[in-house]
């Protein structure tokens, strides 16, 4: 199932400011997994604002349909004067939705299935003519998936977590690497600060994200010099407004949560998306194999019980 659409005009702290039509990424092609909601959707919106052509892949068909519906009316809209939250009209906005030049494509598929990975990469290349950026964002986002007693670990749940969060990105790279090499493109993996710090009963999630950080530097060495590979590990990011409608509950972050961060706030999806755009661009040509912590300094703060 495919939908076609573009950038947002979100009433949120993450709403991207208008970017120049001459942005260095304009005209390039990105594929974002887990792109229908949350951090992934924020990345999709930001890359579209940079003038990229973007395919959003997601296993949630309902969320994909909401994404397409929400963004399709926004792409060709003129920016509101003096409104920094407005997005510029995309240079390809006048194209028909099914035209190869229309800048947005949504693809229903799971990173847990190699056939889906192959199909979605092929569909992206067929629609847009190439691939310059793969963002491996899809994953099971529930870190508290383990039992209170490690001896009671459900190994099927353990394996499923690793299959999606760690093997999934490898499936996508496997499918995309010929196209990325041809374009001298880039890979950006989205891990978590839980790759470097933990709470109790988060073994599967921590292992999957720690493994993704390690996979990043292994791929960087294997795919260099043609394809740089980097990782972003977000901390607490507010994504409520970018979830599908049924899941936009009251924000989970409290004033105390915000105050404990050295920067005095939790993160926004723009904090992550802007770094993705940097790592996709030519200015990051000497950066590969790195894990970028986007956490407001929380992993550097000592916390003791008083």
Structural class: alpha/beta
Strand order of the largest sheet: 1-4-3-2-5-6-7-10
Beta strand %: 5-15%
Could you say what the CATH topology is called? Rossmann fold
From the N-terminal CA to the C-terminal CA, the straight-line distance is 54 Å
Please give the share of residues in helix.
25-40%
What is the CATH first-level class name?
Alpha Beta
What Rg do the Cα atoms give? 19 Å
Number of strands: 10
Global mean pLDDT: 83
- The CATH architecture is 3-Layer(aba) Sandwich
- The CATH superfamily is known as NAD(P)-binding Rossmann-like Domain
What would the principal axes of the Cα set say about the shape?
globular
Number of domains: 1
Instruction: List SSEs in N-to-C order.
Output: EEHEHEHEHEHEEHEHE
Number of helices: 7
User: Which stretches are low in confidence, meaning pLDDT under 50 for 5 or more residues running?
Assistant: 4-17, 78-88
Biggest sheet details = 8 strands, mixed
Protein name: Short-chain dehydrogenase/reductase SDR
GO molecular function: oxidoreductase activity
Family: Belongs to the short-chain dehydrogenases/reductases (SDR) family.
Keywords: Oxidoreductase
């Amino acid at each position: 199932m495919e939908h076609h659409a573009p950038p947002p005009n979100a009433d949120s702290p993450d709403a991207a400011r208008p970017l120049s039509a001459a942005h260095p990424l304009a005209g390039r092609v990105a594929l974002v997994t887990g792109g229908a909601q949350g951090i992934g959707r924020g990345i999709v919106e930001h890359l579209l604002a940079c003038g990229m052509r973007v395919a959003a892949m997601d296993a949630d068909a309902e969320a994909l349909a909401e994404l397409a519906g929400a963004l399709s009316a926004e792409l060709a809209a003129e920016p509101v004067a003096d409104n920094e939250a407005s997005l510029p009209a995309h240079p390809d906005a006048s194209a028909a939705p099914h035209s190869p030049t229309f800048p947005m494509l949504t693809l229903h598929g799971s990173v847990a299935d190699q056939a889906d990975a192959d199909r979605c990469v092929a569909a992206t290349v067929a629609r847009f003519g190439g691939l310059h950026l793969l963002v491996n964002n899809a994953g099971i986002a529930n870190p508290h998936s383990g039992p209170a007693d490690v001896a009671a670990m459900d190994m099927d749940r353990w394996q499923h977590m690793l299959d999606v969060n760690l093997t999934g990105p490898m499936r996508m790279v496997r499918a995309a690497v010929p196209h990325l090499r041809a374009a001298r493109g880039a890979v950006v993996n989205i891990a978590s600060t839980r790759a470097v710090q933990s709470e109790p009963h988060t073994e599967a999630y921590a292992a999957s994200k720690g493994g993704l950080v390690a996979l990043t530097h292994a791929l960087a060495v294997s795919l260099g010099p043609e394809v740089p590979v980097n990782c972003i590990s977000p901390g607490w990011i507010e994504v409520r407004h970018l979830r599908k409608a049924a899941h936009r509950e009251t924000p989970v972050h409290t004033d105390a949560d915000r105050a404990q961060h050295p920067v005095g706030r939790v993160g926004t999806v723009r904090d992550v998306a802007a770094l993705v755009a940097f790592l996709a661009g030519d200015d990051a040509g000497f950066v590969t194999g790195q894990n970028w912590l986007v956490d407001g300094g929380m992993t550097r703060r000592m916390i003791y019980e008083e």
